[in-house]
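# nightly structure sweep
# worker-07 picked up a monomer target from the shared queue
# config: single-sequence mode, recycle default, output format = structure tokens
# input follows
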Amino acid sequence: MSKLAVWSIEEGLGDNGSELAEPKRVGRSSVGLEKHLEDWIVKDASLIGEGLTLVGRQVSIHDGRLDLLAIDSKDRWIVIEVKPDALGSGALMQALYYASSLACLSAEELLAKLQDKNRLDKFVNSKELSEKLQQHLDNEVEPREIALMVVGAGITDGLHRTNEFLARFDIPIEIVSFEVFKPENGAKLLIREVFEKPDEPAPEKPKLTVEAIKSRAVEIGVVEPFNRFIEMFKEAGLAVQPQRASVRIAPPQKRTRYLAYARPWTHANGAGLWISVGGKQLVEFFPKKINEQQADAINCDGYFTGEELCGRLDQIEAFLKEHFPKADNDSG
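# output follows
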């Protein structure tokens, strides 16, 4: 952002009765406390961008607190790091850390953090916002789409260099820099560059289907084991859901959670399936059916081909037939 200069115009009448306009340069000021800038953004999110819905403030995440979290018009999560002064590369690194932490949270863990009474009640229509969050998480695809925004008053050269480097890896980052002025006996002026453009609707995302994932299995020659994986879980009464490149198995009573997944995959050893079965999750949802020892025996996460793949599917199928002899859809 280029440096700005600001003048106030004090209008009055000259000696001959003509209008007299006297420009007076306005001095620079500062944002002040980081909390002040956060407060202003919470009251009006358009300060930093259009189409943002703020959903969290000072959200505890691993060993830190994320300043602001929003959802944009493209249904991405926006991690917002706020500083009261010039932005350095440290602010961007902090935002990256919080984004990586956010990516690791399950839908339920994230919703619990955002529905904390100290979070949503900071926003207007907290009930409506809570419902929107639940719907957003229910429709979320993997991996979670996250973009970064750093907000402050000024930009250092270090931030420019870091941002240019990260741009090589297509990491979505936006930098918002304000300049602050304070007229004598007047309110602070908060100024930033705004590039106006039509508010275009987000492009419609392709509908996720099991058939679309299956077409990849057909393409690489593993459709039979892929179909077998799906059918054995269906017969057990568990939910089969399409993700971006895999199918997820979920408990019927909580379809946003993971029990297992399979992804058609090619590797140096040939085509196969990447299979994950969560023993811990099976015990959590079906404690009357499965104990920890049984869960440990079925727990797996890896790439399988050929006879090893067939053996793994045999093991999973035997486990399901023993513990889910009929599709009763209960919680154990």
